[in-house]
Amino acid sequence: MSNLQRLPAEQQYQQELEALIANEQDTIPTNWKMSPRSVLKYICGGKAGKLDITPKYIGNKRLVEICIATLVTDRALLLLGEPGTAKSWLSEHLAAAINNDSSKVVQGSAGTTEEHIRYSWNYAMLIAKGPSKQALVKSPIFRCMESGSIARVEEISRCASEVQDALISILSEKRMSIPELNEDVAANKGFSIIATANTKDKGVNEMSAALKRRFNIVILPTPSDIKSEIDIVQTRIAQLAQNFELKAIAPNKNIIEQVVTVFRELRDGVTLDGKQKLNTTSSVLSTAEAISLLSNSMALAASFGSGQIEAYDLASALQGAIVKDEEKDSLYFKEYLENVMKKRGSAWSELYQACRELN
Questions:
Q1: Distance CA 168, CA 179 (A)
Q2: Collapsing DSSP states into helix, strand and coil, what is residue 353?
Q3: How far apart are CA 87 and CA 74, in angstroms?
Q4: First and final CA of the chain: distance in angstroms?
Q5: 87 class by beta-carbon count within 10 Å (0-12 exposed, 13-18 middle, 19+ buried)
Q6: Cα–Cα nearest to 99, from 156, 174, 42, 61
C-alpha cells in the first residue's frame, strides 16, 4: 500500500493498463501506448485477457468514443459540464490510457499566468548567463509538445482572457515561439490538449470564439437516471474506502439511494415522481458531492461512531452539503423535510428525525 495520499490514475490502475497493452491487437497511433479501442475499454470497462477492466466512467459510451476520436486527430478536446460530472476524472484517465502519464496539468485559476501555459525562466541563471536553453523553465504544455503527449488544462474558464489566448497559436500552428532565443518549438505527433470548463463559471472569463473553434466540445451531462447515479456513487465509494483505509462498513444501497434522491430532487427542483415542485438550494448537489458526503460519513462513523453510518452521521453531512446560505437554504431544506421526506414513511423516518433536529 502506497503512502501517497492520492495515486495518479496510471499508478492506481497500472495492472489494467499493462494488461491492455499486452493484449493489444489494433493499430496504435504515433506516441500512444494503446489503440483507441483499448482506451475505450480502459475507460468504459471490459476484459483484457483474463483480467476484468473496471469502468472508470459510467455514462454515455458514445461521448467517450467522440473524446478519443478527437484526440486521434489534431483537434484539442474541451469537456464541458456542470460541477461534479466527472470532467477532470475523464480527462485524467484519458491521459493515463493514451500516454501512461496524466501528470502534465495546468490548473486554471485567477492566479494562472501566461508562463504556466508557455514557459518561464530560472532567474538566477538568466541574470548570470542571459537567455539560454538551460535557463528555460518549460510548462507542462511545452513538455507535451516535445514528447508528443496529452496536456491537461483544468477549469480553463477560470483563467484570464489573455492567458486563454496564449493557447490559440499553440493549437493553430502546433508551434511555440521563444523570441528570447530566436527559436520556435514544433509539436510532435500525438500532442493535444484536454481542457475542462464548468458551466457554473459561465461569464467569469468567457472563452473567445477564436479559442472555442480550436476545440472539439463534448458536453458531459449529469447522470440521466437515478440508477446510473447510484451505480457511480457505489463504485467510487468502494474505491475511496480502500484508498483512505476507512475502517467503516460501506453504506448499503438504501443509504446511497436516499442521498442521491435528496440531491436529485433539490437539484432538479421537483420530486422524482414529478408531482411536487421544490425550491432549489444554492449548493452544488452533484454526483461528486454525494460521493464526498458518503466518504465523509464513513470517516465520521469509523472515527467517532460504531463503524457503521448512522442516520445522525448522514444528517450532519446532508446539512453541511445542502445549507450554504444560512437563511434561504435552511428554509428550503426545512420545507423539503416537512413536505417530502416526512411523508415517505418508516424507511425515511430515522433520517427525517435526525435532519429535523439539526435543522
A1: 17
A2: helix
A3: 20
A4: 40
A5: buried
A6: 42
Task: For cell 514544433, name the residue.
Answer: 186
CB 170 within 8 A of CB 141: yes
Torsion of CA 355, 260, 328, 276, to 10 degrees: -100
- Residue 50 neighbours by CB under 8 Å, 6+ apart: none
Q: Which residue has the cell 541563471?
A: 125
Burial per residue of 40-73, b for 16 or more beta-carbon CB atoms within 10 angstroms, e otherwise: bbbbbbbebeeeebebbbbbbeebbbebbebbee
Question: Each residue of 90-138: pLDDT tens digit?
Answer: 999 999 999 999 999 999 998 999 999 999 999 999 998 889 999 999 9
- Alpha-carbon 89 to chain mean position: 3
The per-residue pLDDT for range 302-350, each reduced to its tens digit, is 888 888 888 888 888 898 889 887 778 889 999 999 999 999 989 899 9
Q: Which residues contact 139 (CB under 8 A, 6 or more apart)?
A: 106, 115, 116, 117, 118, 119, 120
Tell me the domain boundaries of the chain.
Answer: 9-220, 226-358
Calpha distance 107→156 (Å, rounded): 8
DSSP state of 240: H
Order across the sheet with 215-220: list the strands: 105-107, 150-154, 192-198, 76-81, 215-220
Rounded to 5°, angle at Cα 31 from 41 and 106: 85
| CATH domain 9-220 topology | Rossmann fold (3.40.50)
Grid cell of 346 as nine digits: 418508516
φ, ψ dihedrals at 46, nearest 5° = 160, -150
How many angstroms separate the most distant Cα atoms in the chain?
A: 76
In this structure, what are the phi and psi dihedrals at residue 209, rounded to the nearest 5 degrees? -60, -35
Contact criterion met (CB below 8 Å) for 86 and 59: yes
No. of H helices and E strands in the chain? 16, 11
Give the predicted TM-score (pTM) of the model.
0.88
Nearest to 10 by CA among 140, 106, 105, 99: 99
pLDDT in tens, 178-230: 999 999 999 999 999 999 998 877 657 788 899 999 999 999 998 888 998 99
Location of C-alpha cell 493535444: 192
Give CA–CA dist 240/206, Å, rounded: 34
